[in-house]
Amino acid sequence: MVLKGSNFNFTEEQRSQQQPSPQPSKPSISSMTSNIAFPSTRLRRLRRSSVIRSMLMESRINLDSLVYPIFVQEGIEDKEPIQSMPGLSRLPLSMLNDEVRHLIELGVRAVLLFGIPSIKDEHASSAYAEDGIVQRAVSSLRKEFSSSDELTIITDVCTCQYTTHGHCGLINGNRVDNDSTLDVLARIAVSHAYAGADIVAPSAMMDGQVRAIRDALDDNGFKDVLIMSYSAKYSSSLYAPFRSAADSAPRFGDRKSYQLYYANTREALREIEQDILEGVDIIMVKPAIGYLDIIRLARDTFKHPLAAYSVSGEYALVKAAAMQGLIDEDAVIMELLTCIRRAGADIIITYFAKRVAEIMNGRVNGSRGR
Q: Which of 185, 204, 304, 339 suits a disulfide with 168, CB 3.0-4.6 Å?
């Protein structure tokens, strides 16, 4: 039999001679691993000593990656313990520099400032006042720690602590007005930059907030001030201790119309992508421990630096269990923060930053803590 075609005219015998010799079959996974499975391979050998375990550690806590939140309150003379967050206090401006100096000595060189003003109004006017509590706090720190290499100052940009209604934007009727809030957020950010902030961190979850702030910073000569946006900020019950500490709980309604629903994943990616399109420098996921999947997804999807905020409720849960003697507090702190790092966070904002520094410096059991 002759096989015919446009470019060939072979017999079956000739055609068979033209066929390439069959390739040897690839070994199966089972055959490939048969020589390296137990007992030849014993993975416990990799964990046999603390030195080996440390040498092979894949995710490490670095003090330079930690940010310590600080509450600065107007109109007080001494620090006020925060009942909802044991071990933490609201600080008067007069005590701020000492606290930060101690942090730097421990190796923590970044702080996130939250202001608690004496006067609130419907328009959050004290949030962008030249003599506002955060503006004075930043100025005080910048005078002593003039170099950003010595101290990085991050400021929260929002209206909730500064308004009589406690919402993260201006109110129009019974709702938060997105677009009118953008101008206020931009004014707050610029006022912080004038005071000396290195990074402004808008947390209001208003559409367009990053673009409004970036344009305002650039127009006022602050092209080098970074924006770290609370890009994927979920509406979480874990914020309750913070709202008590900062006197920022909404006086009516809730924040579900502008913060993310905790059931959603794709929406978080859209929020992050929008911030990137608007010019954000650092993206953030908040909270952290219950949202490790979102942190991992953000890390795998985007190339921007990624921060994770381990929030007040996470702190309070650990402290409550430790105070009951149910857990080893220091061990749990290190485990949880390492998990956040392992999920992909470059930066971890945590109320445990000072304690982590003490642990890593060998100052255990509070022997040299404050």
A: 204
